[in-house]
Amino acid sequence: MDFSDIEIEATMEQRVFNISPIILIKEINRLIKSLLNGKALRLNNILNKVFKVIVLVITKDLVKVASYCFINGIIPESLKESITVVLCKEGKKDYFLLSSYRLIIFKNMLVKVLEKYIANIILKVIEKYGLFLGIK
Predict the structure, then answer these.
(1) Residues 55, 77: Cα–Cα separation, whole Å
(2) For position 28, what pLDDT does the model report?
(3) Comparing 45 with 105, which gets the higher pLDDT?
(4) End-to-end C-alpha distance for the chain, whole angstroms
(5) Is the CB of residue 19 less than 8 Å from the CB of residue 78?
(6) Average pLDDT score over residue span 45-71
(7) What is the C-alpha to C-alpha distance for residues 48 and 40, in angstroms, rounded to an integer?
(8) What is the pTM of this model?
(9) Domain residue spans in the chain?
(10) Has residue 103 got a pLDDT over 70?
(11) Backbone dihedral angles phi then psi of residue 114, each to the nearest 5 degrees
């Protein structure tokens, strides 16, 4: 795939909070390295351990596409898919209660990385502008 035709421009909202529209390669690499190796397969059936190796080859294109999605506020439909599994908790007396069950949600690995990235941006803006009481 060739992503060379993707143009990246910041929106007015991104400029107001001084948010860079360019997703940083080093930040994406850090987030991917932080993924746990022993986790179950995700929706895309790629083990974290394998994903960490593959990403070394596709990082530049991944960051370019992620930046484009971030700037334009879009998420491809395929990345919105998830699978939810309901597990019964052992030893519960009443299985008619919701608290007797645990949900496991399988998401695409790339979505998890992008969610972490965006959460970090939001946290930095909140801290910088003191948007929570007691934070300056």
Answers:
(1) 21
(2) 82
(3) 105
(4) 44
(5) no
(6) 79
(7) 8
(8) 0.60
(9) 12-129
(10) yes
(11) -65, -40
